[in-house]
Amino acid sequence: MTRSLSVLLASLSLATFAGSAVAANYGQVLAERSAVSFVSKQMGVEVGGSFGKFDASLQFDPASPEQGRARLEIELASIDAGSKDANDEVVGKAWFNVKEHPRATFESTAVKALGGNRFEVTGQLTIKGRTRPATAPFTFREDGGNGVFEGEFTLKRLDFAIGEGMWSDVGVVADEVKVRFNVVAAAAR
C-alpha cells in the first residue's frame, strides 16, 4: 500500500533522470537490472517492499540534461509488500484498487542539473486516477557503458487515496512513503 506507492514513484522518478559529464544519450532502460522499492511505517515500524514489473521510456543526454524526458508505467499488481496477505490487501479497493487502476504512471515535465552528478526530475504522477506533481532528486553515473540513476523521494499516500476508510488513519500507517530507485539504462548506439 504505502510501500507500493513509494515504489511506483521511485520507478517513475528513475526513468526520468538525466545528467552526467559523459557525452552519451541513454535511452534503453534495462528493467532486469533496475529496481524500485519503498519504505513506509506501520505503527511506527519501517516496512519495505518493491514492484516487480514496470515499463519505462527514457531519453537522457548528460551534456543536455534539460532535454531529458521519461515515462514510467508500473504494474501495481506486481507489488511485493512482504507477504501474500499484505500483497492481497494492497491491490484491493481501499489501497491501489488494481481492478479499476492497474497501473501508476509518471510523465516527466522537466529535468534540472543541481551540480556535480546531482539532478532533479519533475513531472506528473498518476495513481488510482489522481494526478499530482512529483519531484525527485537523483544522482547519475556511468558504469560500463550504461547510465545508473539512483534516488529517493517522499510521497504522501493520502494525496492519491491510497489507504481509504480505516486505513486512512496515519497513526496506523504513516502518510509519508519513501520511494527509492536504481535505474540502469543503456547508451544509444
TrEMBL record:
Residues 1-23 form the signal peptide. The lineage of its organism: Bacteria, Pseudomonadati, Pseudomonadota, Betaproteobacteria, Rhodocyclales. InterPro entries: Lipid/polyisoprenoid-bd_YceI (IPR007372), TTHA0802/YceI-like_sf (IPR036761). Pfam families: YceI. It comes from the Bacteria. This is YceI family protein. Keywords: Signal. The keyword Kinase does not apply. Transmembrane segments: none annotated. Residues 26-186 form the Lipid/polyisoprenoid-binding YceI-like domain.
